[in-house]
């Protein structure tokens, strides 16, 4: 999810950790020859302005520059943050290639690339850490001062209009050109559609449970909002050994998804929700509540759903003018803690490979998160489903 309402391009070539490339290479895949490198024309999902439906267009993306790589996208998830780019929640520059949750193959290297050799299966990272700012050196790369901007300039439309890409990536496209630090190698055995989700939904939801709340075995958990992030939080709570996992959504159809992810209870969100949660937690309220919607009303509901001394973790990104109202006496007397979890309080360079290993080991089954599989031409329908609150993750697949 995006964390700031800024439109300055991210800085390519920022320092980062190192990876061993060979175990992640695809057989028969190699980097492109820099001598023949050139701009390419591809298909991408482009938004022309806030409130305007995006369409698939032909666009031109540049050859990789120094410190950059070209990635052929094989799968891309459609995230609520993509919707936030066009519904007025964020203020990116237009025209804008949507998408930031994806996996693919490194096909070409720019000059000076030293973290990759070409052919690696990679997950895109929309928040590459600079490793030099105050937050990074303090061990909180998810707050990096150089990342998280809504859009960056890159390429042109077919008629030569300057083009921008979501969160420095623009991943709902056949190819992307990004900093070498915006890709994370993962084992070639991880399916592309699952690898894609590791870069946003899974990292965010799992990280909120493990890194921010640090849910312990035997505790009780409420998760409000069962999209890809919320269901990832349910998965992580189950893995942590939570004794009670109460999943909440406005759509009754989400009940089966919640159960598959490991929820012990499913509740529809209505005026009786807080009472229903307290009835299931001995009248006290839950130990932890994860708000995965990004609305003041649901944050306030999460607040009332936890016990005294409990914690509310805001994972959903809300609007600037949607104000949360809490009474000063309530804040003092309840002893509750309200905080956000930005990008799962994770270090993607460290945590994405670890999550990939969990997927391969079968200890983290993220397959239930994928409810719709579609082609790029059908991607606008995935945004429509997000608006209606239907399904979990829609994944766009690209032919090889």
UniProtKB/TrEMBL annotation:
Name the InterPro entries for this protein. ADH-like_C, ADH-like_N, ADH_Zn_CS, ER, GroES-like_sf, NAD(P)-bd_dom_sf
Q: Which residues fall in a compositionally biased region of kind Polar residues?
A: 1-10
Keyword Nucleotide-binding, does the record have it? no
**Under which name does UniProt file this protein?**
Zn-dependent alcohol dehydrogenase, class III
SUPFAM superfamilies the UniProt entry points to = GroES-like (SSF50129), NAD(P)-binding Rossmann-fold domains (SSF51735)
Its GO CC terms are: cytosol
What organism is recorded for this protein? Answer: Actinoalloteichus hymeniacidonis
Q: Which residues form a coiled coil?
A: none
This protein's record includes keyword Zinc? yes
What GO terms describe the biological role, i.e. biological process, of this protein? formaldehyde catabolic process
Q: Which UniProt keywords apply?
A: Metal-binding, NAD, Oxidoreductase, Zinc
A single MF term (Gene Ontology): zinc ion binding
What Pfam families has UniProt attached to this entry? ADH_N, ADH_zinc_N
Instruction: Tell me the cofactors it needs.
Output: Zn(2+)
Q: Could you tell me which residues belong to the region Disordered?
A: 1-37
- Which family is this sequence assigned to? Belongs to the zinc-containing alcohol dehydrogenase family.
Membrane spanning stretches: none
Looking at the record, the residues that make up the Enoyl reductase (ER) domain are: 40-396
């Amino acid at each position: 999810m995006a964390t700031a309402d800024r439109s300055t391009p991210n800085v390519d070539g920022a320092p980062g950790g190192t990876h061993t490339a060979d175990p992640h290479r695809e057989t028969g895949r190699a980097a492109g020859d820099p001598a023949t490198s050139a701009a390419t024309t591809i298909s991408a999902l482009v938004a022309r302005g806030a409130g305007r439906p995006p369409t698939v267009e032909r666009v031109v993306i540049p050859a990789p520059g120094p410190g950059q790589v070209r990635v052929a996208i094989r799968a891309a998830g459609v995230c609520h943050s993509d919707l936030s780019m066009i519904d007025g929640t964020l203020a990116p520059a237009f025209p804008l290639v949507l998408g930031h949750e994806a996996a693919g193959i490194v096909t070409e290297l720019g000059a000076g690339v030293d973290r990759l050799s070409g052919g690696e299966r990679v997950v895109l990272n929309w928040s590459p850490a600079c490793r030099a700012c105050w937050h990074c050196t303090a061990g909180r790369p998810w707050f990096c001062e150089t990342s998280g901007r809504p859009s960056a300039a890159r390429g042109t439309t077919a008629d030569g209009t300057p083009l921008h890409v979501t969160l420095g990536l623009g991943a709902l496209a056949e190819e992307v050109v990004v900093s070498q630090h915006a890709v994370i190698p993962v084992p070639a055995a991880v399916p592309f559609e699952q690898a894609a989700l590791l870069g946003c939904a899974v990292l965010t939801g799992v990280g909120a449970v493990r890194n921010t709340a640090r849910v312990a075995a035997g505790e009780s958990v409420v998760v409000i909002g069962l999209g890809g992030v919320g269901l990832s939080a349910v998965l992580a709570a189950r893995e942590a050994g939570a004794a009670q996992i109460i999943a909440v959504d406005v759509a009754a159809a989400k009940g089966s998804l919640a159960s598959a992810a490991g929820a012990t209870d499913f509740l529809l969100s209505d005026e009786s929700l807080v009472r229903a949660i307290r009835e299931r937690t001995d009248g006290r309220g839950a130990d932890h509540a994860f708000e995965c919607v990004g609305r003041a009303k649901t944050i306030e509901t999460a607040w009332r759903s936890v016990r005294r001394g409990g914690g509310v973790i805001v994972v959903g990104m809300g609007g600037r003018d949607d104000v949360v109202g809490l009474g000063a006496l309530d804040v003092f007397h309840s002893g509750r803690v309200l905080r956000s979890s930005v990008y799962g309080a994770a270090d993607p360079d460290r945590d994405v490979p670890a999550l990939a290993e969990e997927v391969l080991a079968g200890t983290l089954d993220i397959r239930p998160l994928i409810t719709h599989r579609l082609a790029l031409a059908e991607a606008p329908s995935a945004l429509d489903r997000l608006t209606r609150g239907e399904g979990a993750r829609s994944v766009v697949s690209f032919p090889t």
